[in-house]
Amino acid sequence: MNRRGExxxxxxxELAENSSHEFWARWILGVAGAGLLAAYGVxxxxxxxxxxxxxxxxLGLAEWSGSAAIAVGLLYLSTAALLHCHWFxxxxxxxxxxxxxxxxxxxxxxxxxxxxxxxxxxxxx
Length: 125
Description:
The chain has one domain. It contains four helices and two strands, in the order H-H-E-E-H-H. It has helices spanning about 5-15, 25-45, 65-90, 95-125; strands at about 50-55, 60-65. It has a two-stranded antiparallel sheet with strand order 1-2. Strand 1 and strand 2 form a beta hairpin. The mean pLDDT is about 85.
């Protein structure tokens, strides 16, 4: 297996576990970081304009508009929910189950958003 595949498996197994219950992780990553990402997701949905990082043909930002921007906005919102559930709730000794359930629901949102983007990209072009 190549290094990229190993890193992906390591990241997935780390995400499946509960996070640490440290102050900086809960409030900076779980609240501030997730909040900024969620705010941009709402902006993308409201304005129907979105920027999404791209890797090919070269590094940069891809600009999306219309229904694709809504899908990108929902992708950002789902990712923000995943970050919040992982860093804020899953490390809590009493509410870790809520964090795990939230991670599953937000992962479904991520998969749905990506499927919508793939459909828009391939079926409508």
